[in-house]
Amino acid sequence: MTGMPTAPYQDFARTHLGFEFEDIGLLITALTHRSYVNEHKKSVSEHNERLEFLGDAVLELVVTDFLFKNYNEPEGILTSWRAALVRTESIGAAGDKLGYEPLVRMSRGEKQGSDRARQQILANAFEAVIGAIYLERGYDDAAKFIATHITSKLDAILEAGSWRDAKSHLQEVSQRYDSQTPQYRVMEEVGPDHDKIFTLGVFVNDKLLGKGSGPSKQVAQQAAAQAALVTYAQREKTD
């Protein structure tokens, strides 16, 4: 890392991780996307994919251990809860909240990419940071980091019911309240074929209850169903 300004990374570690890295190169690598290496081949040789591979394994183990020790639920339920905690949206949001995006080294093209691509890069970097913490400080400190930023969100996930398959859950709710099956309709398609964003609405009794967007119709349907579940929850509070 000769000539590489390390102070911003050490400041981030002190402020947000609670310690300084003896090997600050680990954290810098964790926040280096492959595209940056491709643009700076003469000066940079390492990107974060190996650390992401390690961090992903540590994350899954810590979350699994937490769920097993704290909840006496069947395997299927625990698996669904774990999936909700470690999915890209959850860890991307955790990374966004940590505020390390300005420190993530990526190509000019990636900086101008879609929100979806940005979220994926943040999620991958979050896992790589876990890998860096594990190598620098060991399992216990990595587990503390994950507890603060990931497993602490479980109560909110359970309250919102977002761990369940949203479409299946919505069908149960709409049948219970309205004796109707939800219908999904494409409302908008934007972008080129290789990076298209779909917006779908979900209707019950021809009434729009929620809209959702995503890179596929399936993802957009899930988002629309989740929005409709919020509508039903609000209706329940006022009834």
Give a structural overview.
The protein has helices spanning 7-17, 24-30, 34-39, 49-70, 75-86, 88-98, 108-111, 115-137, 139-149, 154-160, 166-178, 217-238, and strands spanning 183-190, 197-204, 207-214. It has 239 residues and is mainly α. It has 2 domains: 8-160, Ribonuclease III domain (Ribonuclease iii, N-terminal Endonuclease Domain, Chain A), CATH 1.10.1520; 166-238, Double Stranded RNA Binding Domain (2-Layer Sandwich), CATH 3.30.160.20. A 3-stranded antiparallel sheet has the order 1-2-3, with helices on one face. Strand 2 (197-204) and strand 3 (207-214) form a beta hairpin. The chain starts with 6 loop residues before the first helix and ends with a helix.
Q: How many structural units, i.e. domains?
A: 2
For the record, the CATH class of the largest domain is Mainly Alpha
> Strand order, biggest sheet?
1-2-3
Strand coverage percent: 5-15%
For the termini, the CA-CA separation is 62 Å
CATH level-four homologous superfamily name of the largest domain: Ribonuclease III domain
Q: Helix/strand-derived class?
A: mainly alpha
Radius of gyration over all CA atoms, rounded: 21 Å
Tally of DSSP helical segments: 12
Q: Helix share of residues?
A: 55-70%
Going by CATH, the architecture of the largest domain would be Orthogonal Bundle
